[in-house]
Every structure is written in structure tokens, then in C-alpha cells.
Amino acid sequence: MKIYVDENMPYGKEFFGLFGEVISFAGRDLSAEAVKDADILLVRSITNVNSRLLALNENIKFVGTATIGTDHIDLDYLKQRNIGFSSSPGCNKVSVAEYVLSSLLVLAEKQQFNLTDKCVAIVGAGNTGSAVHKVLTGLGVNCILYDPPLVAAGDQRTFCEFNDVLESDIISLHVPKVTSGEYKTTHLFGHEVLAQLSSEQILINACRGEVIDNQALLTLAKANKAPCLVLDVWENEPNIETQLLPYVTLATPHIAGYSIDGRVRGTEMLYQALCQFLGEEPVLSSRQLMAKPSISEITVDAPLTSDLVKSLIHVIYDVRRDDALFREKVNNANGFDHMRKNYPERRELSTVTINLSDKNYKMVNPINLSKIGFNIHIK
Ligand SMILES: NC(=O)c1ccc[n+]([C@@H]2O[C@H](COP(=O)([O-])OP(=O)(O)OC[C@H]3O[C@@H](n4cnc5c(N)ncnc54)[C@H](O)[C@@H]3O)[C@@H](O)[C@H]2O)c1
Ligand SMILES: O=C(O)[C@H](O)[C@H](O)COP(=O)(O)O
């Protein structure tokens, strides 16, 4: 069996080599000719899988994407051809939440505000939106949720209206790319909506670039009328509108979900889905493959103030590293993809145990370190 696996899928050879010959490929330039003899095709978000890519292939049985988003896959076409499919829902939701958390801590420090005085509107309350909700409420931050499809589906949580979103101090976007229909998300934040926001507000996009009209944003930014921006995703990646960069406070090349834990989880979820598709029992897990994190324990001997909690989070992940690297590399040839391909190791907070005394832990109310993601060991 020939299994074509994107070269940026960690442990792809280890997991998928168990089924047959693994052929790795660069995701952006995959051609129909190159995959014409694939039995299994495993991609990331940068490969469009459609009738054009699979036109020369008569054997393909299964397509998988090690990502949450599926907007690069023509699911109707796969169904028509009876090709099995799996994505990796939720694989990197914690990584995205930790990206948002780090970004807000950086902005609170830079602009000298207290996050617990702010209201965060989470647009899209699925896997990533809910993970963002969990970490922020773990810090004691007030959040509201906006998600009309979930309201229509009977989700019992409390949801707000779009007007409430526009009035929030901070807006964080977590919707899929949907190009048509009642719940269309492309240019959900177009000129008219963006023009209603003020420079006092913060707008974070860590879902898909097309959810914000980047040209409208640039026009408003040039007129000093844009909100404070955190952009991980952009229209037309990797050929993004670089004129936007000076107006973006934290800018990164679509790496919010790039903790190694999240990326490996994506591969492992595909492995499990493929085992199920082929009727085989899984024999390998990421635990057997992944290295121990370089920091696995931190001992805290003082009362946990919010400043100390911020330092703990930033020891593990500080988005300023990625923002600096991006600004340094973005104008090089293939700068956007180069940084994604060579992304420095980043672990999730759950790989770290915080040792602290019962007395010091009680001091952190209303901060809940476990909800934020750390393991806690009370001495
Ligand atoms: N930057 C990154 O690295 C990164 C990582 C993971 C996911 N993503 C993107 O984030 C998206 C969301 O991921 P998820 O795991 O939360 O997906 P999900 O499917 O679990 O949740 C998406 C939610 O958005 C809601 N939604 C859909 N249309 C909406 C609309 N018009 N208005 C408000 N809500 C709407 C859905 O009802 C759903 O609850 C993915 O589709 C992917 O594109 C980006
Ligand atoms: O949808 C997702 O899971 C994310 O956008 C994912 O992190 C994108 O990473 P890529 O597949 O482009 O490497």
C-alpha cells in the first residue's frame, strides 16, 4: 500500500509506515501526477484535495487531514467517489487557546490593563472557542459566546447577539471558513463591521484569514481606525498583505495550533482513524514516541499572584518569540512557510507540573491553574 504523507506531519513515517510504503511530499505544490498511485493521502491545511488533485488516481481509498479545519477538502467529491475521510477535530484546540491566552497577557502588560476588567467575546464556540473560554475563565476573565449554528442546534449554554460581540473589549474569532449559506463566515468582519470597532478594542484572528477582509482592515488601519490586532491567519497565505504588518500588534504565520503536542495529536488521530478504516487495532501511541519536555516541573515557593501566573505561562509559551521571528523572516523568500516548517518546539501547559504548597495555592482565587491547563501538585 502506498501512503502519501505531508512532510510536515510529525511522526508520519513511524505511524503510517506500519501500513505500507510512506512517501512524503511538500504540501503546497502537490500535483495530480505526483499522487496518481496513492492508496492513502494524508495532508495538512495547505493542500487542496479535490477533483483536480485526484483526477489521475483510480485507487485512492482514504484521505485524511491532520487539521481541525476542512475547508481545503472537497468533501462532496470524496463522498461521490466513495473515498474514506477523516480530519482531526480538536487536535490543536489547546494550542490555539494558549496562543490567545499568551497574546492577551502580553497586551494587558503592554497597555497596562487588567484582563479581569475586560469582556472577551468568543465568536464560534466549538472546540477551539470552548478551549479559549476554559483557559480565560480559569484566569477569572469574563467571556461571552456567539455561535448562531449552536443556538439553532439547541446548545444549552448562554449565547449573545452579534451586537454584544461588537461592543466587547476583546473579540476572538474561532469559526470555520464557510463561503456561502446562512452562516457564511468569509468576510464576516468586512468593512461595515470593522468600521464599527474602535482602536480601544482588540481583535484576534486565529481561525481562517478570510473571516476578516484584510484590505478593508488595511484601509481602516491606515486611517488609525482599526482595533488593536492579533493576527495568526491571513488572506492569501502564504502571499499575505505585508502592508498590514506594521499595524498588527502581534503577528504570526498561522502557528496558533502549532504546539508539538497538538500537531502530534493530529497525526495520531489520523492513525487511529486509518486503523479503524482498515479494520486494524492501533499498536502505536504518541506517548511511545514523544520526548519529555525540557521543562516538566516548576516549584513555586511564594503566593501565586496574577503576575506570577503570567510568568509561569510565559516560561512555557510566549507569543512574542513567534511575533519577533515572523517579522524577521516574513520578507525572505518563502518566509511565511519557512517559519512554519522550522517552527521551534513549543509544548502545552499540561506537560508541566507546578509544585506548590496548599497555603500558596489558596491565595490564587479566582485563578484556577488546572483550568488554565497546568498539572498541579500540592505539597
Ligand atoms: N490558527 C490555527 O492554527 C488554527 C488551529 C485550529 C483551528 N483553526 C481554525 O479554527 C476553526 C474553528 O476550529 P474549531 O475546532 O473550534 O471548530 P469547531 O467546528 O469545533 O467549531 C466552530 C464553531 O463555529 C461555529 N460557527 C460556524 N459558523 C458560524 C458563524 N457564522 N458565526 C458564529 N459561529 C459560527 C460553529 O457552530 C462551531 O460551533 C477551524 O475550522 C479552523 O479553520 C485554526
Ligand atoms: O485547521 C487547523 O488544524 C490549523 O489551521 C492547523 O494548525 C493548520 O496547520 P497546517 O495544516 O497548515 O500545518
Automatic annotation (TrEMBL):
Catalyzed chemical reaction(s): 4-phospho-D-erythronate + NAD(+) = (R)-3-hydroxy-2-oxo-4-phosphooxybutanoate + NADH + H(+)
Primary enzyme class: oxidoreductase
Oligomer and partners: Homodimer.
Family: Belongs to the D-isomer specific 2-hydroxyacid dehydrogenase family. PdxB subfamily.
Domain D-isomer specific 2-hydroxyacid dehydrogenase NAD-binding: 111-256
Protein name, UniProt field: Erythronate-4-phosphate dehydrogenase
Residues annotated to bind NAD(+): 147, 232, 257
CDD domains, sorted: ErythrP_dh
InterPro entries named among the record's database cross-references: D-isomer_2_OHA_DH_cat_dom, D-isomer_DH_NAD-bd, Erythronate-4-P_DHase, Erythronate-4-P_DHase_dimer, NAD(P)-bd_dom_sf, PdxB_dimer_sf
EC annotation from Swiss-Prot or TrEMBL: 1.1.1.290
